[in-house]
């Protein structure tokens, strides 16, 4: 079932941050996507599996995690409303996933297969422009996060995280936030008491 354009106004606004589209174009673009729902704690992508889709978060909150050989779990990415998420390497290079992606809350997504992404860009050249601009935006944010991780202390990383995700502490457990920042729960508790 194709989602209706009316119910996806936020998705259209997201696209129009980078491209201009009319009603007919938006309806045509939307036809390449499929709605997907996840329940809280449900896995979207499991490490070791093939990855055929990328996802835009319409509602909810997801995390992408990597489990190191020593068993320690590292949080790679959060995805709240308006964010894209997938295992990038597995999606673009037809490799096996190395990340687990799961829903922290009941979530609604728009799913785009690799095949449909290729067709979409061939049919709507504006979408090629959109994905290029979006990729540039994502690369910039990743570099900033890496630089912050390398040059800032944990308190500064916590404050920057709250700037990006203001409702984070209401949506995630302290254990999850602490894992993302690479600090203990006790350290995170000290940060939250200061705020």
TrEMBL record:
InterPro entries: cNMP-bd_dom, cNMP-bd_dom_sf, RmlC-like_jellyroll. It holds the Pfam family cNMP_binding. Residues 17-120 form the Cyclic nucleotide-binding domain. Gene3D superfamilies: Jelly Rolls. Coiled coil: none annotated. It comes from the Bacteria. This is Crp/Fnr family transcriptional regulator.
